[in-house]
Structures are given as C-alpha cells and as structure tokens.
Amino acid sequence: MSALDPSYHWPPETNMSQRCPYCHDRDIETVATIPYVRGRVVAHTLGVRKFMGCRRCVRRAIYKEVGVSSLIGWFSVTAVVLNPMMITYGAVRGLFVRSDEAGVKRALEQAGIPDDGAEADPLRVAYGLAAAMIAADGKVEDEEVAVTLEVGRQLFVDFVADDFFKVLANHKDLPGVSELAFLLGGILEDQEKALVFGYLAEIAASDGHVADEEKLMLEEVRTKLGISESATLSFARGQLPPAV
The Co-chaperone DjlA N-terminal domain covers which part of the protein (predicted)? Predict the structure, then answer.
C-alpha cells in the first residue's frame, strides 16, 4: 500500500539506532556547526554545516569542510573577504570538539528522536529532514516552505502544518541533513525512503533552481537512506518501488 493512499498511515513508532552516522561504530557524542561561503563570481552563498556523531568523526567532518572551503570558497569578492575568517573558525573549532550530551539531546529532541532509547516518530523525523533541507543554504524561502506543505500533505496523510512549523522555527537546533537521513534510513522500507527522497527533491527544486550544494546534499541523502539510483529514477517517473 502506498503512502499516497488516503488509508495509509505510518507504521508504529520504531526504535532508531543512535550510532555515529559516519563510522557506524561509536555512539553519537557531540554536535558542531561551522559557517561556510561559496563564491559565484558576481554572487555568493552563505550557509552552515551541521555535524553530529562521535567526536573523532565530527572532527574529521569539520576538517573536510575546511578543506573544501580552502579549494572552492573564493570565487567572488565577498567570498574572498569572508572565506579566510570562516576557514580559520573551522580549523579552530575542530581543535575543540568535546562531548556535548546536552547539545546531542537537544538536537535529537528537535528532530523527534528520543535519546533514552524510547520509540521515535518517523513523521517527526521527516519534518526535521524537510526543515533542514529548506535551511541548508542559510535562508528560509517562502516558496520552499509552500512546496514543503503542499507536497507533505500529498505524501503523508498524517502531515500537520503546525507541527512542521514548530520544527522549522527551531531549525538551528536540528542535526545535519546527512545525519537525519542516516537515522531515518534505519526505520523505513524502500517505498517510504523513495517517497521521502522525492519530497526533499521537490523542496530543493521549488525555487526554480537546484544549487550545487543542494545537489550534493540530495546525493548524500540518497546514499544515507540506502536507496539505489534506479529507485530514485523510478520515483522521478512517478513509479514507486514495489512494496516488500
């Protein structure tokens, strides 16, 4: 039965693993946020990268982002001015990655994932993914919010706009899109994974342009959800994967 069917409801709330989304070995220990800038000759994009995982992996993720900024963060006048400060901040932040139980708890709660082993609400996690995707480029666009509501109501019979807005209002406390996708991938069947991915793709394209950062993020989400490229293409053609 498809989630597009009016009689469809999400399965009962399901336990999620709280293993590090990067190494899948150690527990989630900390969260970190660093700013970035990307120049495009006459324009630039400001945003933040959010990381949640074990301390070792979060530190590596920060330094990886610093490396990317060092290579491609320069191609506008504004970026040339801002990028050195952001690279320096990221490099210093990586030195001081410590356990942050309060930050992890706050991020998980905002995403609808209890940190005490209790059951999680898959739809609340979907709200978190959508909110994180909307805010991924550093700003919340009205067009993206409108599409999120419209498509959300079509895909999820239990979608509640007020609940989504509560999550969106606190998007700065959410884990990163990649981490949320990893957690969500552990509780959904292939059909639901394809629906969620299609949901995010619609949001990204709602302003008429999918930025390079959004394309990379969508690919990372696809990988973290554990869905194949063929399943993604099938969804794009309006063909859901067969139910299992």
Answer: 128-231
